[in-house]
């Protein structure tokens, strides 16, 4: 039985481990706390989840954690995508009396505390809890918390809980994690982003170039070598918000990855303008094993781009994308946003026409609708959230609880949704699985090159069967583990 049990999932196509939950497990295990991670927690059946809980939870269990960063990505304001998961946690809590902790670095505490069905939560944690988790485990009744109704909230990004030693941090996978042979794993090389785009509310935006947010080279090498020796892992989903925020970082990755005794494959988020400004970094990334990059281009309206912190002229971005396609074998994907400041119906149509063109230089294209969450209860806030009036937005439904129903002065969120729905009908016939999707599908048994060349609209051969086989094997490992 385990002293600390953590439920988590990356609720998307295929399978990937949750980096945050396993990082927390690493910290606790170094303190000799027995920890069991329950991956795939959102997609287990009620019988499977109940059986797993019966195996790992008893009177020795002090805490149950729920890592909700990617636990449920399809249903808004619901912790799990089903009703029975929380019911089971409540049932076991009544029997054994453990504390329930809800964590995840993008928690919206206001929406959580308003849900009566979450009364079983004893503590909500916001931010990166690498340091805070030990205080929680050792001194639960003496924590510095914010009282919010019947809930207690611990802000891990505030003293005395801030974590300042990321440069030496690792995820150390253990036998009880049941890593499969050659499994693709997540890895953090850096945390946060040096930029602060006006629409983005990810943590550690505008962090600057402080070294404590970048791992030391020997720390990264040690983690890569251990995973290769223990599990044969050579493929990675790099979790950094922005991989190429400096030339020096790209050069460091190139030097390290090309010196490994195995060939590595990886994907990451990057900015195309930085590649265009420093063209030699494209070759460095490809030589270092990059197979796919994901860009946040967002708009081709020059005024819109400038307003959100994307200074390079869109025409130069388009030329640069073509140059990247012509000069590398890296798969390129990009997201765009409908509804940014100063975007007009005309400029949005021009952008959508460019995306529809099969000759446009991207392997995967995605249009999103601008989201402006309400600020109340949000740990991290974008500039648009804090002062939408400054950017020309009107609030069409002030009483809407969770998100601003915006009008940017040229069109509103309802029009943006119509454009999104119409465009997606075309883009899914052009876009292939790249980046994070490709690595998750590889993990459940697909050939990597096959995935990178499969159109999203076609669905993958035997997906349901392959996922079920993978899930059944994982659950079997959990239930048989001694």
Written description of the protein model:
The protein is α/β, with parallel strands linked by helices and 482 residues long. The protein contains 17 helices and 15 strands. The protein has helices spanning 19-30, 46-56, 84-96, 109-113, 132-138, 217-231, 247-257, 272-277, 280-287, 302-308, 314-327, 345-356, 383-386, 413-427, 435-443, 448-452, 463-480, and strands spanning 4-7, 35-38, 63-67, 99-103, 123-126, 146-148, 151-155, 185-187, 235-238, 265-270, 290-298, 331-338, 364-369, 394-395, 406-407. Strands 2-1-3-4-5-7-6 form a 7-stranded mixed beta sheet, covered by helices on one side. Helix 1 (19-30) links the parallel strand 1 and strand 2 (35-38).
Summarize the structure.
This protein has 17 helices and 15 strands. The chain has 482 residues and is of the alpha/beta class. Helix 1 links the parallel strand 1 (4-7) and strand 2.
Topology, element by element:
Elements: E1 4-7, H1 19-30, E2 35-38, H2 46-56, E3 63-67, H3 84-96, E4 99-103, H4 109-113, E5 123-126, H5 132-138, E6 146-148, E7 151-155, E8 185-187, H6 217-231, E9 235-238, H7 247-257, E10 265-270, H8 272-277, H9 280-287, E11 290-298, H10 302-308, H11 314-327, E12 331-338, H12 345-356, E13 364-369, H13 383-386, E14 394-395, E15 406-407, H14 413-427, H15 435-443, H16 448-452, H17 463-480
């Amino acid at each position: 039985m385990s002293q600390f049990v953590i439920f988590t999932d990356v609720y998307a196509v295929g399978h990937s481990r949750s980096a945050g939950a396993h990082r927390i497990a690493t910290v606790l295990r170094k303190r000799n706390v027995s920890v069991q991670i329950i991956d795939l927690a959102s997609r287990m059946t009620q019988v499977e989840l109940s059986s797993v809980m019966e195996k790992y939870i008893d009177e020795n269990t002090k805490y149950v954690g729920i890592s909700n960063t990617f636990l449920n990505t399809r249903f808004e304001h619901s912790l799990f995508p089903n009703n029975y998961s929380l019911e089971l946690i409540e049932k076991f809590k009544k029997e054994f009396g453990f504390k329930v902790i809800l964590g995840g670095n993008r928690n919206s505490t206001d929406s959580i505390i308003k849900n009566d069905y979450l009364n079983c939560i004893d503590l909500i944690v916001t931010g990166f809890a690498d340091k805070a988790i030990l205080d929680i485990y050792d001194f639960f009744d003496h924590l510095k918390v914010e009282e919010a109704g019947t809930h207690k909230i611990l802000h891990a990004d505030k003293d005395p809980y801030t974590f300042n030693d990321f440069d030496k941090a690792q995820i150390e996978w253990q036998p009880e994690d049941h890593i499969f042979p050659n499994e693709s794993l997540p890895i953090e090389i850096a945390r946060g982003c040096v930029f602060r785009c006006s629409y983005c509310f990810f943590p550690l935006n505008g962090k600057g170039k402080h070294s404590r947010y970048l791992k030391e080279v020997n720390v990264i090498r040690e983690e890569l070598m251990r995973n290769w020796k223990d599990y044969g892992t050579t493929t990675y989903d790099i979790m950094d918000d922005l991989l190429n925020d400096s030339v020096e970082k790209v050069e460091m990755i190139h030097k390290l990855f090309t010196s490994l005794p195995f060939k590595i494959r990886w994907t990451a988020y990057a900015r195309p303008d930085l590649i265009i400004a420093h063209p030699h970094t494209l070759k460095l990334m490809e030589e270092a094993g990059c197979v796919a990059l994901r860009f946040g281009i967002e708009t081709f309206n020059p005024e819109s781009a400038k307003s959100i912190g994307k200074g390079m002229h869109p025409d130069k971005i388009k030329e640069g994308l073509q140059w990247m396609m012509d000069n590398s074998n890296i798969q390129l994907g990009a997201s765009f946003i409908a509804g940014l400041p100063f975007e007009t119906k005309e400029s949005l149509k021009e952008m959508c026409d460019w995306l529809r063109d099969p000759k446009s230089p991207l392997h995967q294209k995605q249009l999103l609708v601008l989201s402006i969450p309400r600020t109340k209860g949000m740990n991290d806030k974008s500039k648009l959230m804090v002062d939408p009036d400054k950017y020309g937005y009107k609030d069409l439904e002030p009483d809407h609880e969770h998100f601003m129903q915006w009008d940017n002065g040229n069109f509103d969120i309802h029009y943006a949704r119509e454009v999104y729905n119409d465009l997606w009908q075309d883009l899914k016939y052009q876009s292939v699985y790249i980046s994070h999707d490709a690595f998750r599908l590889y993990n459940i048994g697909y050939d990597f090159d096959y995935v990178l060349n499969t159109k999203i609209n076609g669905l993958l051969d035997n997906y349901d069967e392959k996922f079920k086989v993978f899930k059944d094997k994982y659950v079997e490992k959990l239930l048989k583990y001694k």
